[in-house]
Amino acid sequence: DERRELQEMLLALDPESRTLFAEAALGREAADFFSSDIGRYLIGCAQQEYQEAMTKLKTVHWFRRRRIVELQNQAWRAEKFMSWLRDLIIQGKGAEQALNEREEHND
Prior knowledge:
Helix content: over 70%
Structural class: mainly alpha
Distance between the termini: 28 Å
Oligomer: single chain
Radius of gyration: 20 Å
């Protein structure tokens, strides 16, 4: 079974390599999600939500503090969703690079 072989391989690695391997795999999954139809749809929704919040924020009266906070939170959520995905992808690429360097160093 492919999954069992992968688990055995992971158990043979040192803890740091195991962590790097997990980060690399997660980064690849995030990149796949980012380029999938669902990922593109959700990213588009987040971008649209951010733009709507920023547009409304520009015209809300200064004394409507509760509404200002709601719009700021809406924009923050949308930004965070996109940044979490980007961070996963970047961390994954960094982990892949670190694993490749370890492999080259061990050869």
